[in-house]
Amino acid sequence: MVRAVRGVLVECDPAIKSIIVNINSENNEYIIEDLDDSHLVVQENKVQQLKFLLDKRLKDTIMEPERDSDSDRDVKD
Amino acid sequence: MSVNTNSLQLSDYLEKLPGTTFKRLYQQPSTAFAIFRRMLPHLAKTIVMAMLYMPTPFLISDLEIWVKPNSKRQKDQALATLRSLHIIQSAGPQSMTLTTNFRNSLRLALEGGGDHHSFGVPSTLPVPADVDLGFLDRYARKKWDDILHYVVNSVEYSDMREKDTGGGGPKASVKELLIAGRLVEKRSVATISITQAGFTFLLQEANSQVWTLLLLWLEAADANVERAGMDSVDMLSFLFLLASLELGRGYSTDALTEPRRNMLPYLVDFGLIYIPPHDHQQYFPTRLATTLTSSESSLRSVSAGFLAASEGGISDAGDKNAIILETNFRVYAYTSSPLQIAVLALFCELKMRFRELVSGKLSRQSIRKAVDMGITSDQIISYLATHAHEQMHRLAAAQKKPLLPPVIVDQIRLWQLDTERMSVCPGFLFKDFESVREYEDMANFAGEIGVLKWRNDRKGMFFTNKVEQIKDFMKNRRKAEQ
């Protein structure tokens, strides 16, 4: 019997996907279906939370480039 | 293609309506005509025109002869649009007709005649001397600018709260609507602040802004029918009627039904119509109303109107071109309009402000901030391009280079990509098919009507963003099998 499951299709690159899978592995509350290397279906009401957690993970792991300095500044301070 | 972003919003709204609502809507020739003119892609219009005077149902096999095989996709999408708007219906397994109400109304609209008052009843009273096109344009612009000012002044930007907000802002009812529609948010008793949706709203073209607000209004009326005492179907068809009226002409309020007369004060608040203070017998549609269903742009783009307004009236196309963008990410804007400065502040780090000039810089942080608020890089780029200073145009033409420095455009896009680690699309996952054939039939059908987002033949699953038509298809398919 065919089933139609409500959810949100998430498309991302494999690296991000593995982070999402990792987040999900803690208590398995986000992912409905793992489709392929770059696609997932997740719970509709959990997307915002997932995005937030993902951003947090990325902030922790990725070095943000230093704010570029303003060499030709208009004002001296 | 006349189908652009604002008709998308409208079509989302329309698609949610049930078939019975369409039956009622299509009783009005003006509505049928407006939907035909505004909502349909060219191919769908051609099909409708072909079928309009056909005495017998149109065979699908005949239609297939008309359409080149490599355009099958467009044909199927056109038919899907027509079906979702309840313009065509199946007349048998292999043929279709226009729905009765739509056919009759569109014929009436094209031929004239009938006693339906669907295109408004012109007033016989004399037109007050001061009401002319210029006056109506100024009036509508003032009203609409008040609303925009209200939205933009909610940005936490203290030196923007200046005296030039002009005339106390929009009416309380409009404010309530903006809050209910989450374009602005009440943070505490006295302060409100703009939301993501509000920013997107600000960057839209005037026509889309009007529709956004009107659809909010319709939804609000739907939500509390008893209190407002208005019927959203009737409201919608009245809006389509307004869109068909002639600018600068007076129409009789007496010919309107009671509920529609009750709508007039709201429409006055939005600036869609003007009613002379001493004479309530006639109303004048403004350009905001008459361009509702056409694709020509109404009053002006967001900031142009403000510049025009702050410079005292008649808009001049040259005014709005104020931004210079340099290859070192610096931005200079020759403007003193609070709105334009506020919009720039959304995606620029503004550093200095002089009389009639602000300067700032695009940076990774500033673009990220904008993207986090829901503004896309394309919106930013197109804003910069439409408001580029004429010197930028001159330079670009002289050196045969693109208007905006490509390095900046690419960088803005890259900065946005940086923040978009994942893209999301709500919808439905179809799985557990009984047979490969069933899977293939349905996945192919979903692809043809343009709702398929992902498929994997090996796993036998696919994902779509809409489900209604697939359900129907599934039912028909099952019936056919039995």
From TrEMBL, chain A:
Key words of the record: DNA damage, DNA repair, Nucleus, Transcription, Transcription regulation
DNA repair in keyword set: yes
Compartments reported by the entry: Nucleus
Record GO cellular component, one term: transcription factor TFIIH core complex
Record has DNA damage as a keyword: yes
Family matches, as InterPro entries: TFB5-like_sf (IPR035935), TFIIH_TTDA/Tfb5 (IPR009400)
Chief localisation class: nucleus
Any one biological process term the GO annotation gives: nucleotide-excision repair, preincision complex assembly
Recorded superkingdom: Eukaryota
Listed SMART domains: Tbf5
TM region(s), chain numbering: none
Function statement: Component of the general transcription and DNA repair factor IIH (TFIIH) core complex, which is involved in general and transcription-coupled nucleotide excision repair (NER) of damaged DNA and, when complexed to TFIIK, in RNA transcription by RNA polymerase II. In NER, TFIIH acts by opening DNA around the lesion to allow the excision of the damaged oligonucleotide and its replacement by a new DNA fragment. In transcription, TFIIH has an essential role in transcription initiation.
Family listed: Belongs to the TFB5 family.
PANTHER family: GENERAL TRANSCRIPTION FACTOR IIH SUBUNIT 5 (PTHR28580)
Complexes and interactors: Component of the 7-subunit TFIIH core complex.
Listed name of the protein: General transcription and DNA repair factor IIH subunit TFB5
UniProtKB/TrEMBL annotation, chain B:
Main location: nucleus
Gene3D superfamilies: 3.30.70.2610
GO biological process, one term: nucleotide-excision repair
An annotated GO cellular component: transcription factor TFIIH holo complex
Domain of life: Eukaryota
InterPro entries assigned to the protein according to its UniProt record, in alphabetical order: Tfb2_C, TFIIH_p52/Tfb2
Keyword terms, alphabetized: DNA damage, DNA repair, Nucleus, Transcription, Transcription regulation
Compartment annotation: Nucleus
Transcription factor Tfb2 C-terminal domain boundaries: 410-475
Molecular function (Gene Ontology), one example: ATPase activator activity
Family the UniProt entry places it in: Belongs to the TFB2 family.
Main function: Component of the general transcription and DNA repair factor IIH (TFIIH) core complex which is involved in general and transcription-coupled nucleotide excision repair (NER) of damaged DNA.
Protein name: RNA polymerase II transcription factor B subunit 2
